Amino acid sequence: MLPGVTTLREPLTRALGPKTGKALETQFGLHTVGDLLRHYPRRYYTRGELTDLSSLREGDHVTVLARVDHVTLHPMPGKGPRSRGEVIVTDDRAKLMLTFFFRSAGAQYAFRRMVPGMVGMFAGTVSSFRGRLQLIHPEYEMLPGASPDADLNPISTELAAEFATQMIPVYPASAKVSSWVISRSVKAVLDPLDAGEDPLPAELRERYGLAGRAEAIRAIHRPLDQADLDRAKQRLKWDEAFSLQAALAQRRLAAAAMPAMPRPRIAGGLADEFDTRLPFTLTAGQVAVGATIARELACASPMHRLLQGEVGSGKTVIAIRAMLQVVDAGGQAALLAPTEVLAQQHHRSVTGLLGPLAARGQLGAAEHATGVALLTGSMGAAARRSALADVFTGDAGIAIGTHALLEEQVQFADLGLVVIDEQHRFGVEQRDALRAKAADNRPHVLVMTATPIPRTVAMTVYGDLETSTLTELPAGRSPIATHVVPAADKPRYLQRAWERVREEVAQGQQAYVVCPRIGGDAPDSDEAEYPDDEDFADGGTIPRGVVGGRRQPLAVLDVTAALDQGPLAGLRIAVLHGRLPPEEKDRVMRDFTAGMIDVLVATSVIEVGVDVPNATVMVIMDAERFGVSQLHQLRGRVGRGAAPGLCLLVSEAPPASPSRERLEAVAATLDGFKLSRLDLEQRREGDILGAAQAGRQSSLKLLRLLTDEDLIGQARQEATAVVSADPQLAAHPALREAIDELFGQQADYLDKT
Ligand code: ADP
Ligand code: MG
């Protein structure tokens, strides 16, 4: 390396010295100069603009720009040289108090730099004292400017230069490393930086009018003006989108080059027979998607397909037909379900739909029948042994199960197709574990999800899967009406909700009551296999237990008791949650399906896939505890038959609160795509990109999946072209390096199939 030159790969401990380097590493996980330069400012203060102090909230760690209003020094009687300094700063409207405690007279010296009329940056955690917001011992920097007494304001020339630009960057900071320490570190590496060759081809840069990389890196940290900043952001977004799409294109090519066993559709087999036995006509969408899948299964390279379709659009039938095609061709298929309840239901419905076709080895079985094995986490030893044997010998052409399917002891004779239902519940490793069970060839993979995925998310998160979408629901479905029941401000409405449940039951229909928690004494981890997807529905963002002094969310066991003795007395009520033993869950679902239970009080175990057409009403308690997409999934459980469905979202969230508005939005539309966009707006992008992003910092920092749709589409097209022409990127070393830099340590992130 040339002396005095810094590269993006250089460790920060070397570029900035061990102390600062270590601090940036422990506080923000920044290791290299490139990492630091991708730690972009959170916002920029324009010179002359002060922070809106009325927007501060207690507990926030803030960096504010404000003007010193007045300064007072209070001696502390009886405490010798100790004193308390009080500085009131203002944005010309609101005020904020800064409090300093001094142990000796000398310590007050620094404090004297705060001269009324001068502007400074102050950083600290907002607390309150006698109803007024304050920062105790904030870190601060006074900005250069006219001082009544130059001696009292010894601003270094370096600092003066730093704040000379129009826009002052404010970095995501912590109590230990302030925004201006980061700002100075950035400056220190930026000056001697050699950003290397530009990863974006020059021709492409020109066509899209993009800034060069070195210029963009400089401008995002030290913009001359807003236009300079916009140009930098646009360029750096391209880097993210282009590197990601190039990496995904490489993966698609590599996957297509893998060998897979072709499993062509065989006439006169189980698949044909299943079709003739179907009690309904397939929708046009089901036929079309089915044909695509049938064609891909017959190929010698593995299918990687994502099937999305609204709840109730009939994805399971498509999966069964695909599985039977593979069985007919001599292979086996595995269906991975996220919960035991759903695995059991799939098993019931597959064996039911197949009838004698699924009764291999039993009396009355069809001649070419196959077996359908069920494997769940807590089934009895004997049943488990027999299921394992059937899977091993190939007697079971179809294996249905939960994560238990992934265990080492599960060995297939010839696994040809992996179907993953309700995909968002499974992690990358789990999918890989199942895929690895195919002997020599890669199995075909079909991933199904009822959570509609906006196009941009599909292009980024699932960028290496081909996508099919079922857009229509089977005929004869009834619309679901959804209403918010404001239990706190209108208790009468809640009473009415229970009356509605009684009315439906009186007409022979059934009802669900959904609660966020199980209750009882044991630790509340419903569905032990997926501990984080219940109880608190918002993806774990809400901590367990009492939140902010609020009462605990309602629990299945408590609500059941209250309903049984109160508004639903006399009805047949049962409970369903993840803590029940598997036989019990299966029994409850069977009884409910058979109409022997009127009201099922459950956790969100019933969220995915549960299919009981006779259930027409669902009451969701503490509905604000659930995410938007989850509420949409839940209500998809009603309105699956001929009678209209009704979903009541009970909530104590006050009118016009964000929670209440979220619920109103769910009530206002049945359009899953609209709701998933809303969900996207309300979550951080990192949550959407999922666990794969955890650990290392998110590599997509500037790209916004909602607003950068055009850019992502263009980048995908351009990157695919570059990679098709040069799969190894031999002629694009800088791009190769950029991909490695952004995604190198998170291969998982790309491993989404
Ligand atoms: P999804 O998994 O997409 O939510 P399912 O596959 O569970 O939906 O289908 C929901 C219900 O609709 C099931 O009872 C299924 O048998 C039924 N179904 C599927 N396709 C059709 C169709 N074309 N016509 C009528 N009913 C259908
Ligand atoms: Mg389903």
Summarize the structure.
This protein has 753 residues and is an alpha/beta fold.
Tell me what you see in this structure.
- With 753 residues, the chain is α/β, with parallel strands linked by helices.
- Helices cover 36% and strands 18% of the residues.
- The protein contains 26 helices and 21 strands.
- The strands form four sheets. A seven-stranded parallel β-sheet has the order 11-12-10-13-14-9-15, with helices on both faces.
- α13 (340-354) packs across α19.
- The longest helix has 31 residues, at 226-256.
- The chain is globular, with a radius of gyration of 31 Å.
- Bound molecules: adenosine-5'-diphosphate and magnesium ion.
Write the topology of this structure.
Elements: H1 12-15, H2 18-28, H3 33-37, E1 43-46, E2 61-75, E3 83-90, E4 95-102, H4 108-111, E5 119-129, E6 132-136, E7 139-142, H5 157-162, E8 167-170, H6 179-190, H7 202-207, H8 213-221, H9 226-256, H10 270-277, H11 284-297, E9 304-309, H12 315-328, E10 332-336, H13 340-354, E11 371-375, H14 381-393, E12 396-401, E13 415-421, H15 428-435, E14 444-449, H16 455-460, E15 466-470, E16 480-486, H17 491-506, E17 510-514, H18 556-565, E18 573-576, H19 582-593, E19 599-602, E20 615-620, H20 628-635, E21 645-651, H21 658-668, H22 672-682, H23 685-689, H24 709-725, H25 733-743, H26 747-750
Parallel strand pairs: 4-6, 9-14, 9-15, 10-12, 10-13, 11-12, 13-14, 16-21, 17-19, 17-20, 18-19, 20-21
Antiparallel strand pairs: 1-8, 2-3, 2-5, 3-4, 5-6, 5-7
Helix pairs in contact: 8-9, 9-24, 9-25, 10-12, 11-12, 13-19
This protein binds adenosine-5'-diphosphate and magnesium ion.
Magnesium ion is lined by residues 315-316, 421, 609.
